[in-house]
Write a structure and sequence with these properties.
It is built from 16 helices and 13 strands. The protein is an alpha/beta fold. The protein has 2 domains: 254 residues, Metallo-beta-lactamase, Chain A (4-Layer Sandwich), CATH 3.60.15.30; 97 residues, no CATH class. Helix 7 packs antiparallel against helix 8, helix 8 packs across helix 11 and helix 15 packs antiparallel against helix 16. Bound molecules: zinc ion.
């Protein structure tokens, strides 16, 4: 199932022309994630490397603009779209006999690389699901993290900043926790430019990602506020085009900070009131302010508010989240569904699912259909076939309405599996 790519998502994937700013000495080059290049009279500082598959393209874009030696490479964090496209840069360095540049990262980035090596197959699997719609069209989008270019300057523990000068330009690096625990961002005072990595992605922060580890809403808000204090005129985001103008940059950072404070503080308030996840989630959906809903920098294109509620909750809560001891050590969902089918016939469940589907209760219809889908494994069962077809139809409708790329991929993957199951059944 190929997903239509919205304008915003094309930008998110770096499909915009590279730009030069800062008196011709700063460049933002889009690939899947962005690479920032700052020229000094003594060489280049590169902020983030592209994903491996786009490394050649990004390298050519850099070399169209400047032939200076690369002196520093900074990893905003160790995700595969920010730290792995080093091959052409290193080849050039070897060819020209230049010194290997300094590679700057936070110490958690090194731990991340170790984790990636341990979990290579697993990450490949979850990334295939998260990026299914683009991976299908662009074979090999997914990368292994087995080869890394190791950092040489490492920000450690509570040491949260590192400053250096190259040519006559100052570079200030700060560590904050946001999308990851190894995030660092760059402030270049002479250029009034901030490079954010994925602390800013021109849409709702990717927090509470259903496949990925814990992320940090409060730290995220604090990072935005620290960036605002610098009064930048240019914001080079981790994904999406350059944001220009003091007011626009300030507004973008401020609204993101406010949204992260909001989701964190409102969840915390409800935890203190002794509420379980379901109640917290639905209350949070009701109080989501319009100013966040409508803001162009918080469009739920990739991550979304619904995911962010999970992130804030999980920051302080374990996995037992329903408050119902039935869920503590549950039976297999297949066995539960089979018991329901003993109480009432599958025809009745199907009829009911159809009825509530026609009333527009799509999500409830899915729960009812799952009694048949999970409980019936008889391959020649026509009711099962009909249930699968209705489930497929509902998922297709949900996917069409879904704004989050990640959520849509989850739904589409499942729909595709159901479609294959229907085909198999119809053959028999
Ligand atoms: Zn990224």
């Amino acid at each position: 199932m190929i997903r239509r790519t919205t304008e915003g998502m094309r930008d998110w994937f770096g499909m915009f022309p590279s730009v030069t700013f800062g008196a011709g000495k700063c460049h933002l080059i889009g690939s899947m994630a962005n690479t920032g290049v700052i020229e000094t009279k003594d060489g280049l500082v590169i902020f983030d490397l592209p994903i491996k598959q786009f490394a050649e393209r990004t390298f050519r874009e850099v070399r169209k603009r400047t032939n200076k030696q690369v002196k520093y490479i900074i990893y905003s964090h160790g995700h595969f779209d920010h730290a792995f496209g080093f091959a052409p840069f290193i080849e050039e360095i070897k060819e020209k006999g230049w010194e290997i540049p300094q590679i700057i990262a936070h110490e958690n980035c090194i731990k991340r690389f170790e984790k990636y090596k341990m979990l290579d197959n697993y990450h490949n699997w979850i990334n295939k699901m998260q990026f299914a719609s683009v991976a299908g069209r662009r074979q090999g989008l997914l990368v292994t993290a087995l080869e890394t270019l190791e950092p040489t300057i490492i920000l450690k523990g509570n040491e949260d900043s590192y400053f250096f000068k190259l040519g006559d330009i100052n570079f200030e690096i700060y560590h904050d926790k946001g999308e990851t625990d190894d995030s660092i961002w760059l402030w270049v005072p002479e250029k009034k430019t901030i490079c954010t990595g994925d602390l800013f992605i021109s849409s709702f922060p990717n927090i509470g990602n259903p496949y990925k580890v814990q992320r940090y809403p409060k730290g995220w808000a604090i990072a935005m506020e620290k960036m605002m204090e610098k009064e930048p005129e240019y914001l080079a985001p981790g994904h999406g085009p350059l944001i220009e103008g003091k007011e626009k940059v300030r507004d973008s950072l401020l609204i993101t900070a406010e949204a992260m404070h909001f989701v964190h503080d409102e969840v915390v308030k409800r935890l203190n009131e002794g509420k379980w996840f379901e109640q917290i989630f639905h209350e949070m959906m009701e109080i989501f302010p319009d100013k966040f809903k409508d803001h162009e920098m918080l469009r739920p294109m990739y991550g979304c508010y619904r995911f962010a509620i999970h992130a804030a909750y999980r920051l302080y809560h374990g996995w037992y989240n329903s408050g119902n001891p039935t869920d503590l050590f549950p039976s297999k969902s297949k066995d539960i569904a089979k018991e329901f089918l003993k109480i009432n016939s599958e025809e009745k469940y199907l009829d009911h699912a159809k009825r509530i589907y026609n009333e527009g209760k799509l999500q409830l219809a899915l729960h009812i259909l799952d009694v048949i889908v999970n409980g019936r494994d008889n391959t020649n069962n026509n009711i099962l076939l009909e249930a699968l077809k209705l489930k497929f139809e509902i998922l297709r409708q949900k996917s069409n309405e879904e704004t989050s790329f990640i959520a849509a991929n989850i739904i589409d993957n499942a729909a595709l599996q159901i479609k294959n199951r229907i085909k198999e059944k119809e053959k028999k």
